[in-house]
Write a structure and sequence with these properties.
There is one protein chain. This protein is of the alpha/beta class. The chain contains nine helices and seven strands; from the N terminus they run E-H-E-H-E-E-H-H-H-H-H-E-H-E-H-E. Helices cover 40% and strands 15% of the residues. The chain has a seven-stranded mixed β-sheet. The mean pLDDT is 96.
């Protein structure tokens, strides 16, 4: 049976493995189809694809786009994309500016809290990659302010904490359109991470579908059986294909192992059926 992992990250954003290392580890884990979906960048796809071409592994170029809908922030995974698409690269550049400004503001906020040089330290950790809050989490861990990534987010980086800097990303419809322009498939990432009520989930899925959205992650990381059943129901009700991915960032995220997630339920249409 095909083993697909369509949601992973590398050092091009906030993962700990290089694109080349990620592909090699995925092959060792028995994955047969892999998508690299770094946050708001396509920077690592060429390197990953080159290694995959030498191994018995089908590589799908992807991205995870930050988007805002109804004042809330979401992630939309784009799969099987043309990385040279002008509109896709335009939204990547737009988000990059937002990320740079946010990083400066997070650094200032932490500085005022007594955690100094967070911006400079985080830039060094990112090493030129897309700057994410996970890089700030690593800085906080390295400096002894947090035990692990979850602790860093909980104490410093989530809503109403010292490093909470809120931004507005490109809107949902725009993000979906850019993925479509790139010939890709758009998928709602980790649908249960947004803490939506049933009513808000329904509104999101209706607008996502109406805007041209294609799929939903039925399985992501350590999805529970109950979450898989719920997501499967959403896929069927709203006519969405199902995707599966680990959301792997590295071995420091022990709940998201490469290739360890369940297979899609047999009654769900896989996103890869259209590729």
């Amino acid at each position: 049976m095909e083993n697909c992992d369509l949601h992973t990250h590398s050092t091009a954003s906030d993962g700990t493995l290089t694109p080349e290392q990620l592909v090699t580890e995925a092959c060792r884990a028995g994955i047969t189809t892999l998508a690299l979906t770094d946050h708001d960048t396509t920077a690592g796809l060429k390197q990953a694809g080159a290694v995959a071409g030498k191994l018995d592994l089908r590589f799908i170029p992807g991205i995870e786009i930050s988007t805002t809908w109804q004042g809330r922030n979401f992630h939309i995974v784009g799969l099987n994309i043309d990385t040279e698409c002008p509109s896709l690269q335009s939204i990547i550049a737009e988000i990059g500016i937002i990320r740079e400004r946010r990083a400066i503001e997070i650094g200032r906020s932490l500085d005022s809290y007594g955690i100094y040089h967070a911006h400079e330290g985080t830039l060094a950790i990112a090493g030129g990659a897309t700057i994410t809050r996970s890089h700030f989490a690593r800085f906080l861990i390295n400096e002894g302010y947090a035990r692990n990534s979850r602790d860093a987010f909980k104490r410093f980086l989530v809503r109403n904490r010292p490093g909470d800097v809120r931004v507005t990303w490109p809107d949902l419809a725009c993000s979906i359109k850019c993925i479509k322009d790139a010939g890709g498939t758009s998928v709602i990432a980790h649908p249960f991470s947004y803490n939506l009520t049933g009513s808000w989930m329904r509104k999101l899925l209706l607008e996502f579908k109406a805007s041209g959205g294609d799929g939903i992650e039925v399985i992501c990381g350590s999805s529970t059986p109950a979450e898989v059943r719920l997501a499967s129901g959403f896929a069927k009700k709203y006519g969405l294909a199902g995707s599966t991915g680990s959301d792997f960032h590295g071995d420091n995220h022990i709940w998201c192992k490469l290739g360890a997630q369940r297979n899609l339920p047999p009654d769900i249409t896989p996103v890869w059926d259209t590729w």
